[in-house]
Amino acid sequence: MGSESLIPMPPVELRLMVSTPEPDYFDNPNGVPIIASVPLDAYATVFDFGCGCGRIARQLLQQNPRPRRYVGIDTHKGMVDWCRDNLTPVDSNFQFFHHDVYSPVYGVNNSLKLAEPFPVSDEEFSLVIAISVFTHVYKEQATYYLSEIARILAPRGVALASWFFFDRKSFPFLRDGPFCLFTDELDPTQAVIYDREWFLDTIRSCGLSVQQTFYPPMPGHQWNVWLTRRTPNAVDEFPRGELGAEWLCGTTQKPMAKVAISNAEKLKVENFSEKNKGRLYSTGPPVLTGPVVELAAMKAKLNETEMALTATRSALEVVERSWSWKIGRAMTLPVRLLRNRFHKFHAD
Ligand SMILES: C[S@@+](CC[C@H](N)C(=O)[O-])C[C@H]1O[C@@H](n2cnc3c(N)ncnc32)[C@H](O)[C@@H]1O
Questions:
Q1: Is the pLDDT of residue 35 over 50?
Q2: What is the pTM of this model?
Q3: Which atom of ligand 1 sits closest to the CA of residue 141?
Q4: CA 106 to ligand 1 center in whole angstroms
Q5: Which domain does 259 fall in, by range?
């Protein structure tokens, strides 16, 4: 067992939050460069946007060469704390920052902001990694973060970002938008799918260009896009139109596309679906979702207030019918008559 294996492994509950929890996915026991197509010198300074519980950081700590500086940021405070407590002690050049912006699942208790600048300087990083992050952010966030990537990339730096794509033009009823599709009513950022044309326009306006594009392992999954700072004669290596259309979200699985999971993994998925059948696909009427839940809660509160009001009214009626109330009223009658006269006198 090599000394590298002493690097702590994130607990399974954190691993489950970011990916498939198998430890292998977080490991790099042979110390090989974690992304085959990246030149070795690009690993010098690495910025990991949406670092989660340190999956990539851990692999980079094991990698030869190890980056001389690594910065990871994430909205999930618990995961960032874990990385700080467990990975920074392995190498103090690996730093983690809590990105205090709202995220419906990963940052519910964070500040109610959608974005803030990356906590690093301009042109500082030779490699920026954003795996499975743009798949979880709103369009305005995506635009902002692309411009932040352009800001922090070194002049010859590269950025790897993964995306779900669709073609808006395949939806004839969509006019001026939307440019992204959400797949979940309760958590819109559960999986966000971007229009290919919007993506290209946006990266261009942020001062980036596409150096290379890799199709996903199966249609509709994440595309890996390599971005660089835009130069005047940049040509974007990004397929559009018919090119690559069979890899978009919503395409039928053509025979040429091979499903990239093993039989063992398929079996696991089937077992999971079988075990969770009742829970995943309820047979009863659908439960309320989204804003309807809030409306229902407001209505219940209103009902409660109305009931309290009715109870108070009945209590008042009881008091008004009591002898003590009637005697009290009779005794205070002269005072009330005097007061009424006084008011009338002033009104005249
Ligand atoms: C699917 S996980 C991927 C984690 C990591 N990139 C990996 O590949 O293991 C998505 C991560 O993005 C983070 N995230 C979501 N929105 C974010 C935002 N606006 N800023 C920073 N991180 C964000 C989540 O907290 C989560 O850790």
A1: yes
A2: 0.76
A3: 19
A4: 8
A5: 3-263
